[in-house]
Amino acid sequence: MIKVLLVDDQAVVRAGFRVLLEESGDIEVVAEASNGPSAVVAAAQFAPDVICMDVRMPGGDGIEATRRIAADREGESPAILIVTTFGLDEYVFGALEAGASGFLMKDCEPEELVDAVRRLADGQGLVDQAVTRSVITEFARRRKAAADPAAARLLTARETEIVLLLARGMSNAEIAKELFVEPSTVKSHLSRAMAKIGARDRVQTVVWAYQNGVV
């Protein structure tokens, strides 16, 4: 079972998400929280696999909670899915920088929420498809960081090439076609790259690449 923590200041939203997720049969909501500080406590207490995190909440926002949870490396930190009514703005950008692994709008279809939780639990980060390219473009616009030679040396030439294509928003299949290799080869190289830089998923790999001037 995939253990989920729901974080939202509206009880009706949490109740709706609980029903949607638990009807899937392989997801269990182990706890709920109504603000950022209580989410940090619940994350430590219940050790969820995935946290569905709202952004704007009285008593403590979701971005700071995401940063605190992601920074706790004593155990493997849970994947954090930002689920909000706000589109591409400071909230999305800040949440991804803080360590979030994915982003969905609250008006998404029920199956999209379930699929997102499963993907994050499986180590696949995601961003709502409607804003994926925009998020990457925003990182490119804001992150004019100089290349860090130490960061660049962490990866082989092939791994760097794959990370660059990943940062362009390509899927494994698209990268494989671009490089004339099998998708399994791309997955293998990407997994090794993620292990080297300490990124838990594709989204945080792209964040790392921009933050370190690799892209």
Can you tell me about this structure?
With 215 residues, the protein is an alpha/beta fold. Helices cover 53% and strands 13% of the residues. It is globular. The protein starts with a strand and ends with a helix. The mean pLDDT is 86.
In the CATH scheme, the class of the largest domain would be Alpha Beta
CATH superfamily grouping of the largest domain: Response regulator
Order of helices and strands: EHEHEHEHEHEHHHHHH
| Terminal CA distance | 37 Å
What does the radius of gyration come to? 17 Å
Oligomer: single chain
Shape by Cα distribution? globular
Query: What is the averaged pLDDT score?
Result: 86
Largest sheet composition: 6 strands, parallel
Short description:
It contains 11 helices and 6 strands. The chain is an alpha/beta fold. A 6-stranded parallel beta sheet has the order 2-1-3-4-5-6, with helices on both faces.
Features:
alpha/beta, Arc Repressor Mutant, subunit A, 13% strand, 11 helices, 6 strands, Sig_transdc_resp-reg_C-effctor, 215 residues, transcription regulation, Rossmann fold
Chart the SSEs and their pairings.
Elements lengths: L1 E6 L3 H12 L4 E7 L2 H11 L3 E4 L8 H10 L7 E6 L5 H9 L3 E4 L4 H12 L4 E2 L4 H11 L6 H4 L4 H11 L4 H8 L3 H15 L4 H10 L4
Parallel strand pairs: 1-2, 1-3, 3-4, 4-5, 5-6
Helix pairs in contact: 2-3, 3-4, 8-10, 8-11, 9-10
